[in-house]
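Q: What residues go here?
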């Protein structure tokens, strides 16, 4: 009597259908979440691109003159727009912001208050960048500051950006800022508070106004433009909007979504199919 061939196919485990659908639902939810996060990162990148386009459009507008600048109800609505101002440099209050780079070289951003001609207003101007002395950090580079009434062209910008700073900044003087009674052409420079250093990590305009008693605007500053002059470079870095970061995150989320799909197809369809083919071949022999 010829023996019956053995059935080599393993019995289908109980609950395999339930496990299949459980894995399917988990894969769908994961793909939906990762695709949604990738689309969100792309939308953030599109918002940043629109913001960059708005900044570029502002820079292309005609420069405001001093009267137009002073007439602005809210100067922050005209950020990045060119402006021409006339006034007097308040040289004794010049501040050097440390650990600022230009073209990868560490140095200082040089800021000087600028008293506007014919007004009682002072605006902080980011004049440019000077390289640090690598032998003696406290030795400041030569910066020329013209005396008398001068005209300055620049962009309306937010107050100087802040870097991470260890410790708590010293408290500003508690006395309120006073209103200058002199015009810019007659303004007398006010010495900085005793013991204050021109080299600082950050500059808070509110605290600086209280420290110097200057009628300083604290809502905006001016970023001087033009070729290098007066010992200063003015290749200001573009605002860091993080476009590359958003595109990188979107690529990661879409890549993770694709990986989940590939693993799902491999383990849910290809692997069982190959296993059944192998069992079928073994059964014929």
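A:
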């Amino acid at each position: 009597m010829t023996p019956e061939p053995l059935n080599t196919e393993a019995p289908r485990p109980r609950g395999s259908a339930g496990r299949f659908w459980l894995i399917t639902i988990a894969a769908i939810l994961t793909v939906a979440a990762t695709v949604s996060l990738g689309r969100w990162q792309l939308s953030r990148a599109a918002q940043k691109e629109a913001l960059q386009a708005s900044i570029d459009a502002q820079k292309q507008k005609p420069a405001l003159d001093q009267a137009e600048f002073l007439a602005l109800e809210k100067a922050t609505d005209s950020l990045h727009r060119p402006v021409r101002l006339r006034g007097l440099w308040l040289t004794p209050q010049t501040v050097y912001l440390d650990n600022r780079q230009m073209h990868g070289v560490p140095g200082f951003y040089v800021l000087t208050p600028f008293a506007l001609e014919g007004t009682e207003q002072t605006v902080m101007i980011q004049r440019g960048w000077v390289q640090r002395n690598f032998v003696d950090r406290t030795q400041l580079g030569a910066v020329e500051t013209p005396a008398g009434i001068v005209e300055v062209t620049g962009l309306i910008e937010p107050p100087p950006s802040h870097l991470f700073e260890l410790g708590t900044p010293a408290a500003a003087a508690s006395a309120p800022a006073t209103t200058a009674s002199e015009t810019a052409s007659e303004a007398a420079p006010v010495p900085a508070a005793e013991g204050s250093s021109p080299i600082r990590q950050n500059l808070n305009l509110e605290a600086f106004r209280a420290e110097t008693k200057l009628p300083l605007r604290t809502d905006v500053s001016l970023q001087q433009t033009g070729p290098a002059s007066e010992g200063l470079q003015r290749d200001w870095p573009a605002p860091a909007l993080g476009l590359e970061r958003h595109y990188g995150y979107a690529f990661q989320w879409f890549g993770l979504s694709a990986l989940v799909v590939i693993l799902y197809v491999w383990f849910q369809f290809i692997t069982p199919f190959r296993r059944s083919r192998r069992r079928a071949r073994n059964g014929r022999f």
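A: Context that may help when evaluating the design: The radius of gyration is 33 Å. The first helix runs from residue 16 to 59.
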